[in-house]
């Protein structure tokens, strides 16, 4: 596994107590006729929900996760053959172009099979390992994309929008700018930090702080942000860490479920629904001695696609956003900080 620097070089949360008792993550059973209603409500209230009976074969999930674990277990020098992430490829610690740091290593790829094959070949050459990873990605992406399109069509039905594929057609387009990301959060056992010399510790006769006065905290694996695309589909192994922000700004932890998927409303969908759906702020914290591996599919539109509120959802209401292309917004996002309000620059009326 990759060797990271000591945690104190990374963002750190003291006394991070997410409120897990008052809220439950919305659960959507895609096999139920009423799922479209539940999806709309979850997108309005949370911008986030969990799906079961999703139709993605478990062998596809297990196969890609197994391949991900093997990849992240390689020596750093081997993994770096697929990097540096700019933004695509292999990266560790540094997230994006603006100085964000995290207790994470990752592999970010487009969903184009040829691109994936080239990246895998840069590590393994023309070998059986390249074929295994390529096939695992291909199977997984195809199945998850199909599920994402089904969810987007149920959203359209729930909003009584015609045509039914108004959102999903953007993912189905041959020029769709969708991506897949594998994240690995290595174990982080140095989660206690001494509070010395800041009023919380006491000085002894030797000038040393009281080492018994400690406060537990959490290292940030991936800092708080929203996803810029239309929709994100994620899952992880059975390890905690993912948290989402509620509308009041408080945070709740998402219980892990390695057999289900979690859906994020993205910034582009927030614009298209004229803020009826709001993208969810989320983050990952490293708070255990167990590795966390996650797999995320980001459903994005073609680069030239114009993003704006749908006229059928602004009937009688003011459009809240300026029209922009996905290419413009994507470039803006990649040059901003993770925690920035990326859509603020595209609002018609500044808050």
Automatic annotation (TrEMBL):
Return the broad EC class: oxidoreductase
Q: Which cofactors must be present for this protein to function? A: Fe cation
Instruction: Write down a Pfam family by its short name.
Output: 2OG-FeII_Oxy
Sequence intervals crossing the membrane: none
Protein species of origin: Ficus carica (Common fig)
Q: Which pathway is it part of?
A: Plant hormone biosynthesis; gibberellin biosynthesis; Hormone biosynthesis
> What Enzyme Commission number(s) apply to this enzyme?
1.14.11.13
Identify the residues that the record assigns to the Fe2OG dioxygenase domain, covering every copy.
Answer: 175-301
> What molecular functions are annotated in GO for this chain?
gibberellin 2-beta-dioxygenase activity; metal ion binding
What keywords is this UniProt entry annotated with? Dioxygenase, Iron, Metal-binding, Oxidoreductase
Q: What is this protein called?
A: gibberellin 2beta-dioxygenase
InterPro entries the UniProt entry points to: DIOX_N, IPNS-like_FE2OG_OXY, IPNS-like_sf, Iron_ascorbate_oxido_reductase, Oxoglu/Fe-dep_dioxygenase_dom
Q: What does this protein do?
A: Catalyzes the 2-beta-hydroxylation of several biologically active gibberellins, leading to the homeostatic regulation of their endogenous level. Catabolism of gibberellins (GAs) plays a central role in plant development. Converts GA9/GA20 to GA51/GA29 and GA4/GA1 to GA34/GA8.
Organism taxonomic ancestry: Eukaryota, Viridiplantae, Streptophyta, Embryophyta, Tracheophyta
- Family, similarity comment: Belongs to the iron/ascorbate-dependent oxidoreductase family. GA2OX subfamily.
Q: Which reaction does it catalyse?
A: gibberellin A1 + 2-oxoglutarate + O2 = gibberellin A8 + succinate + CO2
Q: Does the keyword Metal-binding apply?
A: yes
């Amino acid at each position: 596994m990759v060797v990271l620097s000591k945690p104190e070089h990374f963002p750190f949360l003291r006394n991070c107590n997410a409120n897990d008792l008052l809220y439950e993550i919305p659960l959507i059973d895609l096999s139920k006729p009423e799922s479209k209603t539940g999806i709309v409500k979850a997108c309005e209230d949370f911008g986030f929900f969990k799906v079961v009976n999703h139709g993605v074969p478990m062998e596809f999930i297990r196969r890609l996760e197994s391949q991900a674990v093997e990849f992240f277990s390689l020596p750093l020098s081997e993994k770096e053959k697929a990097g540096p992430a700019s933004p695509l490829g292999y990266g560790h610690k540094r997230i994006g172009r603006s100085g964000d740091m995290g207790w994470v290593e990752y592999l970010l790829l487009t969903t184009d099979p040829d691109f994936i094959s080239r990246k895998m070949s840069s590590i393994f050459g023309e070998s059986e390992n390249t074929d295994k990873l390529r096939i695992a990605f291909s199977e997984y992406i195809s199945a998850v994309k199909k599920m994402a399109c089904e969810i987007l069509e149920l959203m359209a039905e729930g909003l009584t929008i015609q045509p039914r594929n108004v959102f999903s057609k953007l993912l189905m387009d041959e020029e769709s700018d969708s991506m897949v990301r594998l994240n690995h959060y290595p174990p982080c056992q140095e989660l206690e930090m001494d509070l010395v010399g800041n009023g919380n510790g006491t000085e002894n006769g030797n000038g040393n702080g009281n080492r018994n006065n400690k406060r537990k905290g959490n290292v940030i694996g991936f800092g708080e942000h929203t996803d810029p695309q239309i929709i994100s589909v994620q899952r992880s192994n059975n390890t905690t860490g993912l948290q989402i922000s509620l509308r009041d700004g408080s945070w709740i932890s998402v219980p892990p479920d390695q057999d289900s998927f979690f859906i994020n409303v993205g910034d582009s969908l927030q614009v298209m629904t004229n803020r009826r759906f709001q993208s969810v702020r989320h983050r990952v914290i490293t708070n255990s001695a167990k590795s966390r591996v996650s797999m995320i599919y980001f459903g994005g539109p073609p680069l030239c696609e114009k993003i704006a509120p749908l006229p059928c959802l602004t009937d009688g209401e003011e459009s809240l956003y300026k029209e922009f292309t996905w290419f413009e917004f994507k470039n803006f996002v990649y040059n901003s900080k993770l925690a920035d309000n990326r859509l603020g620059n595209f609002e018609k009326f500044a808050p």
